Automatic annotation (TrEMBL):
UniProt-annotated catalytic positions: D62 (charge relay system), H97 (charge relay system), S271 (charge relay system)
Protein name: Type VII secretion-associated serine protease mycosin
SUPFAM superfamilies: Subtilisin-like
One Gene Ontology molecular-function label: serine-type endopeptidase activity
Signal peptide positions on this chain: 1-28
Swiss-Prot/TrEMBL GO biological process terms: proteolysis
Keyword Magnesium: no
Family stated for the protein in its record: Belongs to the peptidase S8 family.
TM spans (from-to): 370-395
Gene3D superfamilies the UniProt entry points to: Peptidase S8/S53 domain (3.40.50.200)
Domain Peptidase S8/S53: 53-319
Keywords assigned: Hydrolase, Membrane, Protease, Serine protease, Signal, Transmembrane, Transmembrane helix
Alphabetical list of InterPro entries matching this protein: Peptidase_S8/S53_dom, Peptidase_S8/S53_dom_sf, Peptidase_S8_Asp-AS, Peptidase_S8_subtilisin-like, Peptidase_S8_subtilisin-rel
């Protein structure tokens, strides 16, 4: 079952005596100031010139999101609670972890021009809150993690989010064992064009045969963007799982975020790194809404910085995600996709009145080469079918002759 010890990623509150939880302008300024290392690392100001995530819905499969937090108000739609029945009747969910993650993805700040509080990676995106875990302090936590009826809440949450129109699904959660239902739900989401992003897990100090840290699910499922965490030096954080499922990494130490009831928190973990990457995916999907999940993942990897020696390792994958570079790579992929499919290509230098409204055929040297290769492939396929037919006839003849000898 789900383990929030791995899912929640070692949160810790700042003392009430500090500026982060006191009232007044200095408090809000300090919160945004605390975000500056992440903002610089992801190159968000440059990315925001291209996209801010408008029109994209990110489903946050977590412990619930507080829709009234001033940095999220107006951006959150509260969806289903798949943990219903675990807590005693009348228990109010804490919604700490979910609010924290949602703010990193789509927080829009507050005050004059939104300059106070938490700014998310995709501040114009919308959040769909889907509750699939309980937090440690909730009275139904033990029941939730032991009762068989809650075993497939993640799978049900994924399908629900897809059917509710999510473009991206953030899963800052992890567990040791995979289920058939989860695998099927992930296939369903990818087939619908939804990008799934999940935490690689926080057991990096546990080695399996000395070669890798444990695999966590749903991050280790094929097709899911598995995210590791880096420290302040952009090296793998010691707690971050390292194995071949890790695609990319993002900052995961001393990350500022919002909490329910107007609070602000700071924490560490692959949960936070995952939320930041989901925000970058939202920026890409807003700019290129038809881009398939595999191409989005490719853009994240191709645009990564601080690449490890050799281009890849199990700690940070292809490197640290960079929003501006990922958008640029997505733009390159989108152009190639248009050419390969013959979709309409609109030159911004051509006035709109002169553009053809119907689909046009774009013929390039590359496309003609593709056509030649296609013809060769078709010829080869025909030859292969002919060979199979000859083999089939020979096999039948041998069988007949063998039968005659037996007789």
């Amino acid at each position: 079952m789900l383990s929030r010890g791995r899912a929640v990623a070692a949160l810790f509150t700042v003392s009430l005596s500090t500026a982060f939880l006191s009232a007044g302008p200095a408090w809000a300024d300090d919160v945004r100031g605390g975000q500056q290392p992440v903002i610089r690392t992801l190159q968000l100001p440059q990315a925001w010139r291209v996209s801010k995530g408008a029109g994209v819905t990110v489903a946050v499969l977590d412990s619930g999101v507080d829709p009234r937090h001033r940095d999220l108000v107006g951006s959150v739609r509260v969806g289903r609670d798949f943990t219903e029945g675990a807590n005693p009747a009348g228990t109010r969910p804490r919604r700490l972890h979910g609010t924290y993650m949602a703010s990193l993805i789509a927080g829009h700040g507050h005050g004059d021009q939104g300059k106070r509080g938490i700014i998310g990676v995709a501040p114009e995106a919308d959040v769909l809150s889907v509750r699939v875990i309980l937090e440690d302090e909730e009275p139904g936590f033990r029941e939730f993690n032991s009762a068989e009826r809650f075993e497939d809440v993640v799978a049900r949450g994924i399908r629900y989010a897809v059917d509710e129109g999510a473009d991206v699904i953030n899963m800052s959660i992890s567990k040791e064992l995979a289920t058939r239902e989860e695998r099927a739900a992930i296939r369903y989401a990818i087939a619908k064009g939804v990008v799934l992003v999940a935490a690689a897990g926080n057991e990096g100090d546990r080695k399996i045969s000395g070669d890798y840290a444990p695999y966590s699910y749903p991050a280790a499922f094929p097709g899911v963007v598995s995210v590791g965490a880096t420290d302040r030096r952009l090296r793998r954080a010691t707690f971050s799982n390292w194995n071949s499922s890790v695609l990319v990494a993002a900052p995961g130490v001393d990350i500022m975020g919002a909490g329910p009831g107007g609070q602000y928190w700071v924490g560490r973990g692959t949960s936070q790194a995952t939320a930041l990457v989901s925000g970058v995916v939202a920026l890409i999907r807003a700019k290129f809404p038809q881009m398939s999940p595999p191409l989005v993942a490719r853009a994240l990897a191709a645009g990564a910085v601080d690449r490890p020696p050799g281009g890849y390792d199990t700690g940070t994958g292809f490197g640290v995600v960079n929003a501006a570079r990922a958008l640029a790579e997505a733009g390159k992929l989108a152009r190639h996709t248009d050419t390969a499919t013959g979709a309409q290509v609109q030159d911004p230098a051509v006035p709109a009145a002169r553009r053809r409204t119907g689909p046009i055929k774009v013929v390039t040297r590359d496309e003609r080469r593709v056509a030649v290769y296609a013809a060769i492939a078709a010829t080869a396929a025909a030859g292969a079918l002919g060979s199979l037919a000859v083999i089939f006839i020979l096999v039948r003849r041998v069988r007949r002759e063998s039968g005659a000898q037996d007789a």
